[in-house]
Amino acid sequence: MNPCRRYEESVIPFLHQELGRKKVITLQKHLSQCERCRGYLDELGHVFQVIENHGAFNCNAQVTGVRRPLYPVTQPFRAE
Ligand SMILES: [Zn+2]
């Protein structure tokens, strides 16, 4: 899954919570409308979580258990 070129470089800092507030809002707004970027972020998020859990690989629950949401996309963005 490839993200839109324009947002590609925002995704990594976003995952590390190093993205500026303004860009986060722009990216979240875009994510609420873009399946491709959401899929990309989801894939990356999974990769990062696997790295995060690397020390706990013997515990299957850590790998296959419920994943916490990385970003709030449940509400469609409303421009008001
Ligand atoms: Zn996109």
Can I get a quick summary?
The chain is mostly helical. Helices cover 56% and strands 0% of the residues. Helix 1 (5-15) packs parallel to helix 3.
Walk me through the structure.
With 80 residues, the chain is mainly α. The protein has one domain. It contains 4 helices and no strands. It has helices at residues 5-15, 21-31, 35-52, 60-64. Helix 1 runs parallel beside helix 3. It is globular, with a radius of gyration of 14 Å. It starts with a helix and ends in a 16-residue tail after the last helix. Bound molecules: zinc ion (ZN). Zinc ion is lined by residues 3-4, 7, 30, 34, 36-37.
The chain-level mean pLDDT equals 77
Task: Give, in order, the helices and strands.
Answer: HHHH
Gross morphology is globular
Taking the sheet with the most strands, its summary is: none
Give me the count of strands. 0
The low-pLDDT segments are 57-65
Helix content: 55-70%
By secondary-structure content and strand pairing, the structural class works out as mainly alpha
Query: What count of domains describes the coordinates?
Result: 1
Individual helix count:
4
